[in-house]
Design goal:
Layout lengths: L24 E3 L2 E4 L2 E4 L5 E3 L11 H9 L5 E4 L6 E7 L9 E4 L2 E4 L2 H4 L16 E3 L5 E2 L7
Antiparallel strand pairs: 1-4, 2-3, 2-7, 5-6, 6-9, 6-10, 7-8
Family: Belongs to the peptidase A1 family.
Pfam family, one: Asp
InterPro entries: Aspartic_peptidase_A1 (IPR001461), Pepsin-like_dom (IPR034164), PEPTIDASE_A1 (IPR033121), Peptidase_aspartic_dom_sf (IPR021109)
């Protein structure tokens, strides 16, 4: 049980202390897009969970991050939902994909890992197949409250 498959990653493993048990909460120093530091957006806290392919954040944080990605836009799941997906152009250059500074180390996504597929594959309108869903796209407004 456990272990690491070194064929699935490059570089060193970064150990990050859990700051709130029960939620796998860690401190995030900052978020960057295109080299621009977007700051201490989450108040330091973020929940990480290897059981999901998405990263959850308050709507305000997701809005700031996606405003730094050219042509990214929100797609609310419904008019009454507090959950929103974000999409971005599938051909977004790697330097416009968000990175996270955690324990002083900049950690990012490979462009293939950031792209969760065209919105035409996840039930959205097929008139914009050049738009892709990303792992920051499932956003729950209050998921970090109290962290």
């Amino acid at each position: 049980m456990g272990g690491r498959d070194t064929s699935r990653y490059t570089g060193d493993v970064v150990t990050v202390p859990v700051v709130k048990q029960g939620y796998w909460s860690i401190n995030v120093d900052s978020v960057e897009v295109g080299g621009a530091d977007l700051g201490y957006l989450t108040g330091g806290g973020a929940i990480v969970d290897t059981g999901t392919g998405f990263i959850q954040a308050p709507l305000e944080v997701a809005a700031v991050v996606h405003s730094a990605i050219p042509s990214a836009r929100a797609l609310p799941l419904s008019s009454s939902s507090t959950t929103t997906r974000y999409v971005y152009p599938c051909n977004t250059p790697a330097d416009k994909i968000p990175t996270f500074v955690i324990v002083g180390r900049t950690l990012g996504f490979h462009p293939d890992d950031f792209n969760r597929g065209s919105i035409s594959k996840v039930g959205e309108a097929k008139n914009q197949p050049h738009q892709c869903v990303n792992p920051l796209s499932l956003v729950i407004a209050a998921c970090m409250a109290g962290i």
